[in-house]
Structure formats: structure tokens, C-alpha cells
Amino acid sequence: VQLQASGGGLVQAGGSLRLSCAASGLTFSSYTMGWFRQAPGKERELVGVITWSGSGLYYPDSVKGRFTISRDNAKNTVYLQMNSLKPEDTAVYYCAAAVGSGLRRPGQYDYWGQGTLVTVSS
């Protein structure tokens, strides 16, 4: 199984980025996909979850209204659209895959991508 995250970079506060995560080696349409982030010295935290069908979505309050997760099962890809970025959004962003529902903790995910760095300047 491989999850390849991409799309990170340097952006000014208030700007936008779109992250992608291409999956291979698994039946993508059967998996719940999550996006997490980890800033230096901090724990890995959830920023969005989308169920296998795309009908179930969850965002923590820290990103609700600014981030949107979506998926294209035909392309085996999950996306994270990030708008109105803030300096505190600076982190390495990871995609992850798991089977099931209500998956909000890192330990519940079976497969992880390598991460892509997002840096938001003030």
C-alpha cells in the first residue's frame, strides 16, 4: 500500500493550498480517508475525515469552514482544500487510510503517506 501526498508549499496568510493524496495497492473505495497534521513539538492532529462514499465528513473546530476534504474514487485520490490559511496551520500534513467509521484518532488508521509540508507566513 502506498499513499503519496503532494501539494504542500509556502503560502502567505489568507492564501489557499490544495493537497492531494494518491493511493495505490488497496481498494480505495472501501477506505475511510483522513488528513492529519503535525507541527514541530506537537502531537499529530486530525484535520478532516471522509468516509468511503464521500457522504460522511468530519472537521475539528480549528479548521471547520476553512478546510474541505473530498475524494475521487475513480482516481484513487483524496484532496484537502485549505482556504484562509493561518500561520498556525503550518505543519507537515499526512493522509491516512482505514476501514470503518468514526475514525478520528491516528492510532485507528492502518496506512500513512509520507507527509507534505505546509508553511504559512504571516
Short recap of the structure:
The chain is mainly β.
3D architecture notes:
The protein is mainly beta and 122 residues long. It has strands spanning 2-6, 9-12, 17-24, 32-38, 45-50, 57-58, 67-72, 77-82, 91-98, 111-112, 116-121. Strand 7 and strand 8 form a beta hairpin. The model has no long low-confidence stretch (mean pLDDT 97).
Give descriptors for this structure.
globular; seven-stranded mixed beta sheet; 122 residues; four-stranded antiparallel beta sheet; mainly beta
Helix and strand pattern:
EEEEEEEEEEE
| Helix run count | 0
Which structural class is indicated by helix and strand composition? mainly beta
Strand content: over 45%
Radius of gyration: 13 Å
Q: How many angstroms does the end-to-end distance come to?
A: 37 Å
Task: Tell me the number of strands.
Answer: 11
Largest sheet: 7 strands, mixed
